[in-house]
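dumping this here before i forget
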Amino acid sequence: MADRRSGMVQSMGYPNPSSSVVSRAVAAAAANRRQSSMRTGRASKQYSVSAFYSMAAEQDVEVEDDLAQAQRILRDLKSKISTQSKKNFVLERDVRYLDSRIALLIANRMALDEQNEVASHLEEHDDQGDEHYPDHRKMQQYGNLFFLLQSEPRHVASLCRLVNLAEIDTLLQTVMFTLYGNQYESREEHLLLTMFQNVLAAQFETTTEFTSLLRANTPVSRMMTTYTRRGPGQSYLKTVLSNSINGLLEHKDLNLQINPLKVYEEMVNQFEEEGRDLPPGMPRSVTPDVAAANPDVIAIIQPRLVMLMDVTNRFLETIMQSLDQVPYGIRWICKQIRSLTKRKYPEATDIAICSLIGGFFFLRFLNPAIVTPQAYMLVDRLPGKHPRTTLTLIAKMLQNLANKPSYAKETYMIPTNPFVEKNKQRINRFLNDLCEVGDFYESLEMDQYMALSKKDIVLNITLNEMYNTHALLQQHIDVLAPKKDDHLRILLTEAGSAPAQVPRKQNLPIVLPLFSRWETPIQDLTTALMSENNITQNDIQYMEAKAIFVQLVRSLPYFAKKPVMDLHRIAETAATSKDAQMVRKGIKVQDMLKELEAANVIDRKDNYALLAQEIKQELVHLGDLKDRVMQESSSLESVYKTILDHNNYLKSQLESYKAYLQNVRIQSSGGEKGSKKSVGIGVEVEHSGKGSKSKASKPQILGPYKFTHQQLEKDGVIAVTNVPESRKGNIFFTISCPMPGTFIIELHYKGRDKPILEMDLKLDDLLEKQQDNIQVLDLEYVQLSVVRTLHLLNKTFVTKSKNGIFS
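structure:
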């Protein structure tokens, strides 16, 4: 059993790696790597297998040059993004659940047991107890099971179609962020996309009407949306949309509202704000048709339409110019949609097919980020009223452009049809171009085959992810594995009944080693390749020598600058250096040069010209690779910061709910039972001594705390300000908390004893505004962001005990 634990990976659908599989895999690796520069006359099979040695030269852990350092930074960054993306997905699920439950609390319609259920979603992990931890035998069984699920995506694909909407989010968490959670690793990404292909194919088979394809809120559509929230998709949105959206937000007074009824209401409001009576024949309320026919409304809308179409056109240009930046996986899904549509509906027009592709690319991917950029952390502050309206209209126009038919559903959007007609052919070309990417099947075979030699394939997975997946598989086993000898059925039978879900505090993440029940490990990859592909020992030795020389030159970079590459001198320098690893490599390649010359593979008379030429080509490639790695790292740094910011935002939401729930419990229990080891906003925790129990102290006034106008505006707490620029330096705010859940916000002007404005604010009211999607709190001189204000109150007044908040 020990050899199985080393981490083999079963090739997809192949009981044993056959010669043809390996041949195609090796050939695929060569086909994808520097085809033009590598054709210099030797047998092509040598260059096929040289893919292995090229990868070794690129990623050798013993080399300490700029490339190696840049690669380590990039790998670490990608790992962090993958891990943090999963954390955000889990937090988003909690926030969505609590959004609905807190609304009941606000309305005082939640019983005590329901309050306890809500509280359970706010508990932190307890690292102490391990009574729920699987024993060694269970770990082996789960290692077998999840190895099979990962390497044979058809099982997961079938399961995703069988579960209901209530179950899909938990399963998607496991699939997208755990089973295939390494978002930048080609094998896991390609396996995940293979699963998508199976799911989409089944969706096309079972859908009866073309118009409903991929548009309903189904587990499949939820899968597609969740996929776009992975690291590469977030990176694309940040790179492509952030500047355009932030540029629009700078013009906070630019009003491009074109809905005649709302424009009419703006006119009425303006009259009332100025204290003027409405003109004769201008009633306060009218129908949409009357508003659309009003000459003043028409005169206001006309220039707005021109500007709106111009702004949207700039967004469209930016998106269309980003074709090469669109993540491969998203383009490949577009390709599958096009291919499946043509097969299932051969009579479908190009416009109809493009509408389906656009339904995924725009409706599921781009437009949500345009409409709510703050949720995707594309902006630093909450969009104001006018920019928010403009972004919504831009998204509607882009969706109308990608839709079939080409015309708007809302009457007031009909005047934007010229934009649609002008750009329809362009957008269809772009959507078709999205689909022009190569397939990955051969490279996946290579990845799968190489994975057979790995010894460290693991999953970072929580107990409840394991147990929930186990339970779902058991529930649908007769569909997933109808035969007695199906591997999945055998593993589930051995694993027995699925354990119950553990309490949140005991839902610990564990490292699960993956290995196969049926696969034989590959102990020596080189020997396997030789036997499977008729490659000689000389071919292998030649490629290994080249890889070692590349590593040596990376460690001795001055040799790369010389016009003629003296391999004999490089080997000698390495063999006589003070570094033990260099000495070992130098001596080895000295021997290899002699053996290759004796076999008439290379010739010292021409200074090993062919080998030297290939080494130079490899080094040129590595130089370009370093630039690409550093450029990618720079881009991903921004993405990682965005994901962390979003994580902090989600945590602040949960902290608000924690504080509110605790305040409710304090008030309902007279401040006794519910106060142990937990706090609400404005409740301090005291410790009377070691080992003593924590309890809420008698409420006392906290604060006031002082904040400048510039500070709050920079942090996005002030969403809109009417304070002149010249006076902002003289304005400051104070916030105090006289009792749990109650705050007093005062606006002061320097030099004056009394505040200009004072507001009594309840935590309940803030949360209720958030529930009602009211995004700003009006203080006459400024408007505060509801979400950022909650975050500020949490940061300022929530006192953390030693064991954490609400532990």
